[in-house]
Predict the structure.
Amino acid sequence: MISGPIIEPSSGNSPKQMIIFVHGYGADGNDLIGLANYFQSTLPEAIFLSPHAPEACSMNPSGYQWFDLTSTDPAVLWSKILVAADHLNEFIDSKLLEYNIAEENLALIGFSQGTMMSLHVSLRRKNTMAAVLGYSGRLIGADLLKDDLISKPSIYLIHGDQDPMVPYQESLTAEKVLKEYSIDIKTHISEHTQHSIAEDGLRIGVDFLASKLKI
């Protein structure tokens, strides 16, 4: 099973909430775990986990990927996403059980490919998690949601207006699609920001999760 760095609750108590970081293409769990410092002040009872994706990255062997982006065949891409989703779901299930935390007290924070994975998994899980905070990503398989949609977590998508890797319009498109399914979703576009997380986007994310993970 996949694994990665963990930061225990700053309160020193047993965790009451769980936040899982889902990193981007070519990175690893260490890439996002440092963001826990920003969330701990408002979520002192939360445990933070940041697993490494299951595959070595085809473009950056020192990093990891949730799925290979080199194929241009949509069917091949989708099959790889399904495999990656199995890995992430297995991790989520095992950690919720290990720490005795209900899904309503779980949130995912994704970046880029990690946002794609977070959206895919959260909308298809049997039980609805509290929230998904997604940076610089996109919604994949929107045309399949009619048959696949099971859960409707609260979602906040944040994107840089100068992102050269994943255009910010992808987040706006995802918002439009998901609102059609009556999902609680908001977007924010950070000005003068490329493929990264700006200060305003981080601040919005902290407030969002604090509002959704109330005990």
The chain has one domain: 6-212. The longest strand covers residues 154-160.
